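Consider the tokenized backbone below.
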């Protein structure tokens, strides 16, 4: 798997670099109240993708924390049941 990861990552980097080089013309992003921002298209796509990924990670954190707490509670319960079972066998 290690032998596949590096060439795949290198290929993806080269493809994205080529995309960024080909799409370097500035575009205008219009905000409310007449604000505009001019930036290269590849930069805007990178910013939008990164912010979407961060929003997704933040949205998943609460369920991950809840699952981790539930898992710890179940492990404690399993250990307690295992201890009582061993004490009854002795």
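A designed sequence for it:
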């Amino acid at each position: 798997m290690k032998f596949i990861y590096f060439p795949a990552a290198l290929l993806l980097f080269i493809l994205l670099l080529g995309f960024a080089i080909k799409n370097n013309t500035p575009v205008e992003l219009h905000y409310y109240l007449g604000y505009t921002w001019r930036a290269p298209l590849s930069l805007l796509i990178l910013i939008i993708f990164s912010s979407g990924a961060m929003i997704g990670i933040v949205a998943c954190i609460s369920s991950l924390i809840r699952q981790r707490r539930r898992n710890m509670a179940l492990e404690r319960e399993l250990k307690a049941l295992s201890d009582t079972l061993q004490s009854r066998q002795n």
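The mean pLDDT is 89.
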